[in-house]
Amino acid sequence: MSLPKFDVIELRRSLLNWYAQTGRNLPWRNSSDPYQIWISEIMLQQTQVKTVIPYYQSWLEAFPTIHNLAEADLQTVLKLWQGLGYYARARNLHACAQQIVQQYNGVFPYELEAVLSLPGIGRTTAGGILSSAYNLPISILDGNVKRVLARLIALSVPPGKALKSLWELSDQLVDSNHPREFNQALMDLGATVCTPKTPNCSECPWTLYCQAYLLNLQSQIPMREISSPLPHKIIGVGVIWNQQGQILIDKRPAKGLLGGLWEFPGGKLEAGETLEECIKREIQEELAIEIEVKDHLMTLEHAYTHFKVTLNVYHCRYISGEPQPLESDEIRWVTLDEIDQFPFPKANEKIIAALKNNS
């Protein structure tokens, strides 16, 4: 793909001038430490800056170096990540730190191929890290940048159908003299000016060149993919109490959705079942114990990337059987006072809060 007829040098100059005046002052931008920049890049995947900042600061207090992270217990890592979502990112950070210590003596690599071989790091994340940490002229293409470039050239298809062309465009534009500032400026432009809805074109340094703006198509571009409605699952959840006032929790398998996190056991409602029948069956299948389903605690809605759930949570009384982790990695009986020591998914945090309020 060739750029429309405008001067790439001028595009770079105008964007860098704009960034020098309006660029965001973010904690990781005051550092050239590749470890700190890597952590910020992973946290910023699918998470807003204002949400990331306190997590980022807490993370660096707990794990100031790659060696600290590599030596940490995964449960400690997941607990610190609790609430940020997309937990595979935390598991990958931990595995990645261990790989960097083993293969690179704890120094984050500066070759693109080496960085791309690390768990959880794709092309745009690698470009973000290497340009910010080592000032290497490597392009990026996150969601904000896709939108900026799609509008710049008035892209006539959804960005997902033109990734090769958008990468070529990002490669052509990146400023080899100031790659760190250029990539940061491009991300800021998408985050603060060239926003998804009602872009603030009067503040944009590229209005002279932006084809969508010149054609008055900025509200139609980027074009959207037609998406199917998200599947919806009804889930029965059991808060199982024993005679000692302890609650049974289980740890999800390390791989897969919410891997390594703890939860209250339960599962999907089958056709023709009541919620009470669902919970009794799931607990028998997952833990091989008999329970009595008691009072309803709460119902809550939660959305993941590819599906939505309604969690129907019931107090349950443990009756008999030796609990076994048939579909989980581990099980524990814990008191309500001890439960905060374990990393839980966001929806389960609301259940814990309700239990504490009722205790």
UniProtKB/TrEMBL annotation:
Nudix hydrolase domain ranges (all copies): 230-359
N-terminal signal peptide: none
EC number assigned by the record: 3.2.2.31
GO molecular function, one term: 4 iron, 4 sulfur cluster binding
GO biological process, one term: base-excision repair
Enzyme class (EC, first level): hydrolase
S-adenosyl-L-methionine recorded as keyword: no
Cofactor(s) the record lists: Mg(2+); [4Fe-4S] cluster
Swiss-Prot/TrEMBL catalytic activity: Hydrolyzes free adenine bases from 7,8-dihydro-8-oxoguanine:adenine mismatched double-stranded DNA, leaving an apurinic site
Protein residues bound to 8-oxo-dGTP: R252, E263, F264, P265, G266, N348
Residues that, per the record, bind Mg(2+): G266, E286
Cross-referenced InterPro entries: A/G_AdeGlyc_MutY (IPR005760), DNA_glycosylase (IPR011257), Endonuclease-III-like_CS2 (IPR004036), Endonuclease3_FeS-loop_motif (IPR003651), HhH-GPD_domain (IPR003265), HhH_base_excis_C (IPR023170), MIG/MutY (IPR044298), Mutator_MutT (IPR003561)
Cited function: Adenine glycosylase active on G-A mispairs. MutY also corrects error-prone DNA synthesis past GO lesions which are due to the oxidatively damaged form of guanine: 7,8-dihydro-8-oxoguanine (8-oxo-dGTP).
Family: Belongs to the Nth/MutY family.
Protein name per Swiss-Prot or TrEMBL: Adenine DNA glycosylase
